Amino acid sequence: MAPRVLPRLLPARANLGKEKTVRFVEAHFRNLQTASPWKFFLWVFGESFVLSVTAAYLASLVLPHGPRTDLPHGSAIKVILLLAIVGPVLETLIFQWAPIQILCRFQVSTTFQILASIAFFAGAHYISAGILTGIAGRLVLGFYLAFSFVTWRKISATAAFGMTAAIHAAHNLVPAVVLLIRHHVF
Fold it and tell me: Which of 10, 107, 120, 155 lies 20 to 30 Å from 77 when distance is taken between CA atoms?
């Protein structure tokens, strides 16, 4: 069962005009923290995938973009190895584990830990893949990965790293398979 650690991401009296919606979203993320590991994994993966693809699509309607040139090419094994194993493990280490653990040692708020992780993750993807991927899709995925890390960190850093890397790997596996199908590698 995931521990309850959701920080208050919005002020208690957020003046958004939709306080009921804010309470619903906060309750949703608090409920995720009580889910079993498999339920947490499946729910966070599914939700983050749908929302990041939707954000990227909506952004594509207004932001300039071209074809992605940062994706690996080659054999099916190489593409899957890089996108679904090596990439998620290294990126979890660099963009979630390092900034969140370092900021935690300095007793920085959980909200700021999450925001820092999102900024590093989205910024690196913006630099390597452009505005559409970096800003639209990766802000959403960056949030879910940081949320996963801080949620599971209460159990252990290993649990946090494993859950976060697994969600990231599943997230990358879908486009890896699409990329391979598109290039007729299978």
Answer: 120
How many Å apart are CA 73 and CA 92, to the nearest integer? 22
**What does the pLDDT look like over 39-80, one tens digit per residue?**
999 999 999 999 988 888 888 788 776 666 656 666 778 878
The radius of gyration of the chain from alpha carbons, rounded to an integer in Å, stands at 17
Given a cut of 90, whether residue 3 has pLDDT beyond it is no
Lookup: tokens for 173 = 């596996």
How many alpha carbons fall within 13 Å on the CB side of residue 161? Answer: 12
Check residue 35 and give left, alpha or beta (phi > 0: left; psi -120 to 50: alpha): beta
CA–CA gap between residue 39 and residue 45 (Å, rounded)? 10
pLDDT per residue as tens digits for the range 145-158: 999 999 999 999 99
The pTM (predicted TM-score) of the whole model is: 0.83
Q: What whole-number distance in Å separates Cα of residue 182 and Cα of residue 33?
A: 37
Residues of the chain by 3-state class (helix, strand, coil), percent to 5? 75, 0, 25
How many Cβ atoms sit within 10 Å of the Cβ of residue 133? 21
Contacts 24+ apart (CB under 8 A), 39-42: 40/2, 40/148, 40/151, 40/163, 41/163, 41/166, 41/167, 41/170
